[in-house]
Amino acid sequence: MTNFPFTAVLGQDELKQCLLLSAVDPGIGGVLALGDRGTGKTTTVRALGALLSRSGLPAPVVDLPLGATEDRVVGALDIQAALAEGERRFAPGLLAEAHGGFLYVDEINLLDDYLVDLLLDVAASGVNRVERDGISHTHPARFVLIGSGNPEEGDLRPQLEDRFGLSTTVSTIADQQVRARIIRARLAYDTNPEEFLDRYAPQEQALGEAVADARRRLESVALPDDLLDRVVRLCVAAKATGHRAELVLARAARAHASLRGADRADTTDLRAVALAALRHRIPRTPYETPSDVDARLADLL
Q1: Which alpha helices (DSSP H) does 57-192 contain, by range?
Q2: Residue 107: half-sphere exposure toward Cβ, Cα within 13 Å
Q3: 80-86-88-93 Cα dihedral, nearest 10 degrees
Q4: Catalytic residue among 244, 271, 284, 296
């Protein structure tokens, strides 16, 4: 099965940037994409995984469905091995499959609270510990958590929302020309996927190589003291809750600088990532729209 090319996704520039930054630095903490359904969120996430894999960066995209059981998520006793061989053996779950890649949860605002707590624990530690059914097993589970959903269908728990490094609002595109281009691209892909992929192969290769290079040089990108001071001032002015905002802003700015090939992060990088890093961490009134929140933040930049 082929995936729609990442570089062919139109009209969702901020979502694409957030995903790329998280691919460069998984320590940013993942991406939350809330907004209208049918806007290509799932397509874009899967396209990124395919782009990275083609560039020699294995990054599986594993879907966590709403109805998934705890056994399916964390892993459990291998029943077949137990019955056939009388052996207690661990059967890996979705968290093991997502190690080194992306764990994607669509409609994350509707996810069972117990699974939310489980994801928070594993995402924080990077380790999945299973003690059940007579087995004791531990394995690494480091993944980029990607969540999407429609806010009209329910609110996201604040504890979970805060754990996402970056947040973006995905809206239906109003520009008629862009909408027409989206439809033409999708129809062309559905008609002949291989030909469509070949058309975008050069762009996919170039972007994949850029991400791989940005990953390699990330730690060498400087974060000047004056930029870190500005990060702190911005978080204080925005009344960001907690101190995770500063860390995410600094890491995202450095990843942005690395992706554009710079040796040091500057205010250009900070401005490019500030909205995504802060919009879900500042106080909001009940009647504020996402555009209102972004406007408030933009005034501080």
Answers
A1: 70-74, 79-85, 94-97, 113-125, 158-163, 176-191
A2: 11
A3: 0
A4: 244
C-alpha–C-alpha distance, residues 182 and 256, integer Å: 27
User: Which pairing describes strands 127-132 and 76-77: parallel, antiparallel, or unpaired?
Assistant: unpaired
Per 3-state DSSP, the chain is made up of helix, strand and coil in percentages (nearest 5) of 55, 15, 30
Mapped onto helix, strand or coil, the DSSP state of residue 110 is helix
Q: Which amino acid is at 267?
A: T
pLDDT digits over 147-194, tens only? Answer: 998 888 877 877 788 889 999 998 888 899 999 999 999 999 999 999
Q: What is the pTM of this model?
A: 0.90
Strand partners, 131: 136
Altogether, the residues listed in the chain come to a count of 301
Please report the DSSP string for 226-286 in residue order: HHHHHHHHHHHHHT-SSSHHHHHHHHHHHHHHHHTT-SB--HHHHHHHHHHHHTTTS---T
Phi, psi of 68 (to 5 degrees): -65, 140
Side-chain-side CA neighbours of 193 within 13 Å: the count stands at 6
Q: Rounded distance, CA 14 to CA 275, Å?
A: 10
* Measured distance CA(205)–CA(103) in Å, rounded: 23
Most distant pair of Cα atoms in the chain: their distance? 66
Instruction: Say whether 244 is catalytic.
Output: yes
Where is pLDDT greater, at 242 or 210? 210
What does the alpha-carbon distance between residue 107 and residue 68 come to, in Å, rounded to a whole number? 13
Provide the 10 A C-beta neighbour count for residue 157. 16
Kindly state the DSSP code that residue 194 receives in the 8-state scheme: H
Q: Could you tell me which of 106, 89, 7 has the C-alpha nearest to residue 48?
A: 7
